[in-house]
Amino acid sequence: MKVTTKQLPKSQVELAIEVTAKELEPHLDKAAQTISKEVKISGFRPGKAPRQIVSQQVGEFKLWQEATNSALPEFYVKALEQEKIEAIGQPEIKIDKLAPNNPLSFKATVSYLPAIELPDYKNIKVTEKKTVVEVKKVDEALKELQKSRAKLAKVDRAAEKGDAIEISFNTFLNKVPIDQGESKNHPLIIGEGYFVPGFEDKIIGLKAGEKKEFTLRFPKKYHKKELADKDVDFKVEMNNVQQRNLPKLDDEFAKSLGEFKGIADLEQKIKDNLQTEVEEKEKSRLEIAIMEKIAAETKAELPEILVQAETEKMLNELKDNVAVSGGEFDKYLESIKKTEDDLKKEFKAKAEKRTLFGLILREIAKQEKVEVTTKELEEEVKHTTGHYQHDKQMLEKIQSDEYRDYARSLLVNRKVFEMLRKECVGK
Q1: Taking the CA of residue 404 as centre, how many other CA atoms within 13 Å lie in the half-sphere pointing to its CB?
Q2: Coil, strand or helix at 92
Q3: What's the rounded Cα separation, in Å, for the pair 339 and 332?
Q4: Is the dihedral of CA 334, 339, 340, 343 positive or negative?
Q5: In this predicted structure, what is the pLDDT of residue 427?
Q6: The total number of structural domains that make up the chain
Q7: Cα 314 vs. chain centroid, distance in angstroms?
Q8: Cα–chain center distance at 137
Q9: Pairing relation of β-strands 211-217 and 2-8?
Q10: Is 183 helix (H, G, I), strand (E, B) or coil?
């Protein structure tokens, strides 16, 4: 087999491959068996007709064509191994010459993992910030927990700040009802600030059964652009007013949660959790800072196929987020007045950065000889399995070879980041 390579832009290579007629011989015998299973040949059981008889029955070119189809993947892989090319994605194959008793010539165009030139990454330096949990953050978390345990009591009075209410409302722009701008028995806590600024102030003072009409100017950066910086009319009816009675923040409250000795123990647990959270955020910030500094000095040509794959991944992540929040992606696109292609164009720069980060991590792992043991991989799979005990579909996915490859890559990256943090982070 003869192979000639030609470098193409964007980390692609064209392989011109020539296979001798002798090298195709084994495939001709297999092709005869395949054809004789599909084509009835008098006097022979399916798959048992001699090659010469099959050739006479269907024609020699048909036989060579079938042999070529089964041989191409094998010779393509051998060509990659011979030229030491790490291909990614599926190749584009074009047959140049196919004739019985003659060499087979074909070209395969494929993307490959490019050579990447890293800087002296161990001398990259970033500064770690102090991770201190402020007392007010603990207090805020404690108050949120207190609110979640509030008891509601229906009251026959005007709504006040802090009350839990239910309202029905309609919204209008230029006297035309706004799409999805109507809600019945909508729950709301006055003072939480979840509505348009000023809305909750307008409904303070209403009793159950009372109605009110008013106009509010929507924020300039409102997520629905058609409403941004516009005057919107509201028609609101108060359906129900409930007073929230908050429990006292004391030892009894902490013990009622089931796992705390008292209020001091609860506060300490909240502080510990917040401390872990800020430390994880700082760790992520440091990792991104290190990667950006390394990327700024790295020389690499990004394969378009990897950038496209990363773009698709980002789009799917957005779709999942919209679905989790209870939305429909088509309606989401309508609300932002964009198409999937528009989003892909917007994602491209970030996809290129993520692709480069991935190539950098892979190259550092290669240079540092970072490996994952079978035990480490099994422990990671076991740990993940523990989170999905009642999700049969997810459990099946976790046991797949694809997930194990993903988990192995994840563990390798963790080890690389651990090494980089030790080398690059200064106090």
Answers
A1: 12
A2: strand
A3: 10
A4: negative
A5: 65
A6: 4
A7: 6
A8: 30
A9: unpaired
A10: strand
Q: Residues 225, 121: contact at Cβ < 8 Å? A: no
What are 9-47's pLDDT values in tens digits? 888 999 999 999 999 989 998 888 888 888 888 778 777
Residue 238, CB-side half-sphere exposure with 13 Å CA sphere: 26
Would you say residue 88 lies in a domain?
yes
Give, as one character, the DSSP assignment of residue 204.
T
Which pLDDT tens digit goes with each residue over 192-217?
Answer: 888 899 999 999 999 999 999 999 99
Per-residue tokens: 412? 């390798």
The CA distance from 383 to 378, in Å, is: 8
266 residue type, one letter: L
**117-121 long-range contacts, Cβ below 8 Å, gap at least 24?**
117/298, 117/299, 117/300, 118/294, 118/297, 118/298, 118/360, 118/363, 118/364, 118/367, 119/294, 119/297, 119/298, 121/294, 121/364, 121/420, 121/423, 121/424
Structural domain containing residue 36 = 2-112
- Tokens, residue 46: 């399916």
Cα within 13 Å of Cα(223), Cβ side: 6
Sign of CA dihedral 22, 26, 27, 28: positive
Same-domain pairing of 103 and 13: yes
- pTM tops 0.85, yes or no: no
Output the domain CATH number for residue 44.
3.30.70.1050
Tokens of 201: 């102030």
